[in-house]
Amino acid sequence: MTHIDRNAPVMVSGATGYVAGVLVKRLLEEGLTVHAPVRDPDNLKKLKYLNAIADSTTGTLRFFKADLLEAGSYSEAMQGCELVYHTASPFFTKVRDPQKELVTPALEGTRNVLETANQTPSVKRLVLTSSCAAIYGECADLANTPNGVFTEDIWNTTSTLDHNPYAYSKTVAERAAWEIANAQSRWDMVVINPSLVIGPGINPNATSESYNILRRFGDGTMKAGCPRYGIGAVDVREVAEAHFQAGFRPEANGRHILSGHNTNLFEMAQTLQPRFGDSFPLPHRSMPKWLVWLVGPLVDKALTRSSIARNVGVPWIADNTKSQQSLGIEYRPLADSMNEFFQQLVDSGQLKPRA
Ligand code: NAP
Q1: Phi, psi for 193 (deg, rounded to 5)
Q2: CATH fold label, 10-347
Q3: To the nearest whole number, what is the mean pLDDT of the chain?
Q4: Ligand 1 atom closest to Cα of residue 170
Q5: Candidates 68, 91, 172, 205: which one to mutate for ligand 1, based on the most atoms within 8 Å of Cβ?
Q6: Is the pTM of this model over 0.90?
Q7: How far apart are CA 267 and CA 337, in angstroms?
Q8: Does residue 69 have its Cβ closer than 6 Å to ligand 1?
Q9: What is the percentage of the chain residues whose pLDDT exceeds 90?
């Protein structure tokens, strides 16, 4: 049982990110003091969304300079904090050097932040943003689960540096985190494992892969058809709430799958049809698996034939019971998250309706 003093500052790594932005908003609305170590605290353009929230809430926001790859750089921001959120980790799929761009920052960054927690006596709890990608690599992995469903007991064993490197980066980072956490007893660790995060963030121009997927639904990339690529989806506001509860519920422990919907990309795109179908080139039909297999890799290098075989037309099923029972999460309808997310891209001029 870990009790966090609400008067102590709370550290959030990666505060400039999509997921962390909504978490920082939640913390500031509670009137808490948030320490935000970021790569460039002088980049006011990037920090303006966080600053605007700080100005309109009762909380206090302080920026610090830190980098996942610089050992000890989170030390100053962590001073006096009882609760530390480690969310920073690269999330994109188009990479040239997966070791350098994904695995090293995810793994070394996690070691860096957790070793700093070991050296910071005030820290009582660390909440790690892992991913469902640390639980599964591909939908076909479902066949190897004991009950045909992804749960918190399962680990991704199919991703490697060359095959699904993002999922591999999240898997090795979470494993390293548990090793460090279990080697001591002063602080405890709670892990949040979200599926694909969707829904409006605080920065409409975010670079997270979540935004790229939504843009591709609306910019005509998929107008010939969209694959039924099995995936889980969860609203960013539920992910933020889960982080908040994981930090402050004394009894919170272990991993938590955060996923509101067992779905697929075509089904997700379909939720946009009633409101946006007339004005945007949304995918109207699902693309048959053989056709995705044939043309997919030509359109997108990250989409290999093996990943098509193991994900397209294969269901994705996860059990989100623990998140509901232990963290009190209530999941909103998929269509609400999708439509509000799409609207954000329209309002910010990133998706333009047909003339
Ligand atoms: P994001 O918007 O790209 O945020 C990533 C954050 O990590 C940014 O704040 C970025 O800082 C920071 N970062 C990256 N490399 C860094 C480095 N070398 N040093 C310091 N900071 C660094 O992505 P996101 O979607 O919010 O993802 C946040 C977390 O959620 C990640 O751990 C991700 O794996 C996890 N997650 C995301 C999803 C999803 O669907 N979005 C699903 C499951 C889990 P800069 O702003 O300086 O680049």
Answers
A1: -120, 85
A2: Rossmann fold (3.40.50)
A3: 95
A4: 34
A5: 91
A6: yes
A7: 13
A8: yes
A9: 86
